[in-house]
Amino acid sequence: MTDLHALAAKVAAEGEGPRLPAASPVDQTMIRHWTEAIGDANPRYRGQDAIAPPAMIQVWSMYGLDRASARRIRVPLDDLLDALTEAGYTGVVATNCEHTYHRHVVPGDELTSATRLTDLAGPKKTALGDGYFVTWNVTWYAQDEPVAEMIFRLLKFRPREKRSPSEERKPYPLRPAQNRDTAFFWEGARSGELRIQKCGDCGELRHPPGPLCPSCRSTERTYAVAAGTGVVYSYVVHHNPPVPGRETPFVVAVVELPEGVRIVGNVVDCAAAEVEIGMPVRVAYHVMDDELTLPMWTPVQHRES
Amino acid sequence: MTGTALAGIGATEFSKNSGRSELQLAAEAVFAALDDAGLAPADVDGLVTYTQDSNQEIALAREVGIGDLTYFSRVHYGGGAACGTVAHAAMAVATGAAEVVVCYRAFNERSGRRFGQPDARLSGEPSSQGLEMSWHVPYGLMTPAAWVAMFAQRYMHEYGAKSEDFGRVAVAMRRHAASNPAAWFYQRPITLDDHQASKWIVEPLHLLDCCQESDGAVALVVTSAERARDLRRTPAMITAAAQGAGAGQMMMTSYYRDDMTGLAEMGVVGRKLWQISGLSAADIQAAILYDHFTPFVLTQLEELGFCARGEAKDFIRDGGIEIDGHLPVNPHGGQLGEAYIHGMNGIAEGVRQIRGTSVNQVSDVENVLVTAGTGVPTSGLILSRG
Q1: What is the value of pTM for the model shown?
Q2: Interface ipTM
Q3: Residues in A lying within 8 Å of B, measured between beta carbons
Q4: NCBIfam families, alphabetically (chain B) (predicted)?
């Protein structure tokens, strides 16, 4: 999902988008509709020297009921919001709105507004689903004078899929414990990468991973993405007793990687009797449930060249 | 450990369903061990058990009427704790921390929680052990038989050992158990054909490569050699006691170190035992080798120096580890034949061999070597005549 962050950085770098004119100047009639609807009887909003209610600022630049896209002027922020929608984050919920008023807006003011992206955070797990928080700033101008600003944040989320009970994928029962030292591996598996811890200082590869480099004591951790090939170093065929989430017999192997580390995983896509020490295998990612993907190993066919 | 001795041993019957609580089993074994030594509960001032034991020292002390305790400790890593409990007790006695220390292990491992059953909670918590398990459990590699089988496969590949070589261990243990009335498999020997015909548990291990599951308890009394000499029984001197973990050590899954055919931790224990005792393999007349799974009996013979690497299959051929072989191993029948009491019943047999009271007595025993759980950080003892 780094492409979304890259896009956000690009949009943010573009700064403030074009100043879009309000549909009509600030006027008494709209102020009266708004205060009556809100039930605000403040005399400052009536009569000869009336001012516009400050909290009404967003009203002046709102799109009306005519939603024809041809009339809508795109701003840089739209690129990011569209990309999020395309990535499946179709749900929208506003989470924050903070106003700052620099001066009173009065009837006759002809306002413009301009938007700039300030932050993209995520992906985050939320009660609504996984999503990104998008934060932007809107500034309203009268001529070149900023009169009000707004910080606005919304969550673009991937709505939880509603499956029928028969379709619902049961959680796989054999789950790995994870912590900050190991999460990168499981995240990698989900995104189709076999990640091997690599020392950020001396470059030593290590699996299983840990918080330190045993060679140089460095805590600068990074990872290498393994080529995804290996050789069966040892293996077992499990028959008894039954294992939850598994059908017997199944094969588990210690696989030696060309990168120089060993890793444990299932050998799949071949009969147990065909597995042998020295057999070349290639990684295959198996989605076990909505959260867990396990790297497994499938035989590499020998071809006569 | 010079100056310390095992002065008493006690046990419950070994069964598949004890019908009583684990605490009751522990108390019965402690009474039996104290009676054996000729000591009273009031003489005990130290208790040691496994971290895995469900009976707290204070609960046991209340039950058997032990008063003040000046020493108590626990040893970790499953069955690797067995000889470690005696090591802790001997150190407590040698330093004056306590005078009479009882080591105990009690469980309903067959009728209660069975260690051989898959348990997804093994990788449930992000503790160091939970994280270690998390590289294996998600792939269904989650039973002791499976963890050992992974080593065994590589061992067979490198040294040309066959399933029959593992089977010979099972045959020897069942032969010994057949003449031990305390053994679950009393009068039930097996043949190599029986072994080969038994069902697969986890290839390359057959059912008869795996030890049984048992309910029961064993207790051992450790005190000074001087005091032990004045008690009822011939003392078994603790000539050496050692614990060991190797580089790159894991719990049952040390698959990531260069050599997957040995048990580096048992090598550590062996070297320490020889160093402390000044003895060598040639000085040992009988060995009690932890036998939860047959392949690791071969590995232990190699790590302890009874034979060279890869040659255990030849060492055990033709009854080499049977009662009349060149190194009698587990004359009581081991855990494959007598009972699985997490290695503690083997220490009791070591004491009987020194006393000369075993039902399968080896002649002219001076020194017995005893080991604890394999594949885990482990421990060992050398017991000697006083």
Answers
A1: 0.77
A2: 0.96
A3: 172-179, 181-182, 207-208, 233-246, 249-250, 252, 254, 261-266, 272, 277, 288, 292, 294, 296
A4: PRK07855.1
